[in-house]
Specification:
By secondary structure, this protein is an alpha/beta fold. The chain has 14 helices and 14 strands. The structure holds 5'-deoxyadenosine and iron/sulfur cluster.
């Protein structure tokens, strides 16, 4: 390998993936790599993949497929897929993408520098998946993509098993990072002048349940708020069943904590919520919102919604519309249902036709747009 090898990383999917790509970039920079600004100029190309919806997975695979020509012109280039689709599809990706050199699942990303080394030495394909439990990589490379805003991951995986969701299968069960490591990371960022810090976890409100000692999410927020320096600490995602009154009171009280709550509703229909295994009904959700609004007056409220879940009738869809109208979120992210085996809903008949999903999707976008237009966005 040349003195300074270059890496190009492209990210598909959520903030968690953004952070993972940044982490891998950081550890490679510390190993002496530099950054390439396009795949054809790189020695190593890595696509960080998302598998939450099939469309995202297909798009990544098709994009990686297009890199075949680069590999043909430059057989020494190393190409890999990391993240959720790597975990989900594993070895099968080598069949669909024969020019691929490595597949690295979500729990193995800390070993990417070693994987690259091995490939250079042996020129064999490397498959590293299946590490979905145990300790999280605690390396804390200095590299950050942005100068003022930073993501800090506080936990990985999820125990909720919403029936439509592939996350527990590709990121494993929930594992919280140790509070001291998190606080140290945030403290370092504040010293470096970072103001906007977003704490990431699939279900931040259940942070610490798997740790020994007397720690929970509210305590973690309090410890962060007490750190020196100007700060705006945001967090996502919250699950309605775990977002507590105590959390709202803490958000209302502490100056350094953002007043933005992202609280995915997913549906307004109790039947659909039950079949999604969300473990709340619309009445419970609305009462949470009512409490939040009362306790945190100058807030911002956003949500996620899925349309076209199996069995969703016009009446169920009307209930979702009604929920959006009642709550008047600042913003809503609206998704068309996509069956994701092995998530359990993939065994239910995907009986809402594509055109109906699309129509409902469009309808909710228009509805939410008219609501958002009339709302003052208080925090970004
Ligand atoms: N189909 C459509 N949307 C999904 N989401 C998760 N799984 C699916 C799926 N199978 C959405 C949910 C979640 C967001 C991150 O992605 O709304 O909150
Ligand atoms: Fe998926 Fe539900 Fe966990 Fe969110 S809470 S990651 S939707 S299983």
């Amino acid at each position: 390998m040349k003195n300074k090898s270059s890496v190009y990383i492209r990210t598909f999917g959520c903030q968690m993936n953004e952070r993972d790509s940044e982490f891998v970039t950081g550890i490679l920079l510390e190993k002496g790599f530099c950054l390439a600004d396009s795949p054809d100029k790189a020695d190593v190309v890595i696509y960080n993949s998302c598998s939450v919806r099939k469309h995202a997975e297909d798009r990544m695979i098709s994009n990686m497929g297009q890199l075949k020509k680069i590999k043909k012109d430059n057989p020494d280039i190393i190409m890999g897929i990391m993240g959720c689709t790597a975990e989900h599809r594993g070895k099968g990706l080598f069949n669909s993408l024969p020019h691929l050199d490595f597949v690295c699942g979500t729990g193995n990303i800390g070993t990417i520098p070693d994987i690259i080394k091995k490939i250079i030495k042996k020129r064999e394909k490397e498959l590293h998946v299946g590490k979905l439990s145990g300790h999280l990589p605690e390396a804390n490379p200095r590299h950050r993509n942005d100068k003022r805003s930073a993501y800090v991951s506080i936990s990985r995986g999820c125990n909720n098993y919403c029936t439509y969701c592939i996350v527990p299968y590709v990121r494993g069960n929930e594992r919280s990072r140790r509070p001291d490591d998190i606080i140290k990371e945030v403290e370092d960022l504040l010293v470096r002048g970072y103001v906007n810090i977003t704490l990431l976890g699939q279900n931040v409100n259940s942070y610490g349940k798997d740790l020994e000692g007397n720690i929970n999410f509210v305590k973690l927020l309090r410890a962060m708020d007490a750190l020196n320096g100007k700060k705006n600490i945001k967090f996502m995602t919250s699950h309605p069943k775990d977002a507590s009154i105590e959390l709202f009171e803490t958000m209302g009280e502490l100056k350094g904590i953002s007043k933005h709550l992202h609280l995915p509703a997913q549906s307004g229909s109790d039947k659909i919520l039950l079949n999604m295994n969300r473990r709340y009904d619309s009445k419970y959700y609305l009462s949470k919102i009512k409490h939040f609004r009362k306790i945190v007056p100058d807030h911002m409220l956003t949500t996620d919604v899925i349309v076209g879940f199996p069995g969703e009738t016009e009446k169920d869809f009307e209930a979702t519309k009604s929920l959006l109208k009642q709550v008047r979120f600042n913003a809503a992210y609206i998704f068309k249902y996509s069956p994701r085996p092995p998530a359990p809903s993939s065994k239910m008949e995907d009986d809402v036709p594509r055109e109906v999903k699309e129509k409902r999707h469009r309808e909710l976008l228009v509805l939410q747009k008219s609501i958002s237009k009339n709302k003052r966005i208080l925090y970004d």
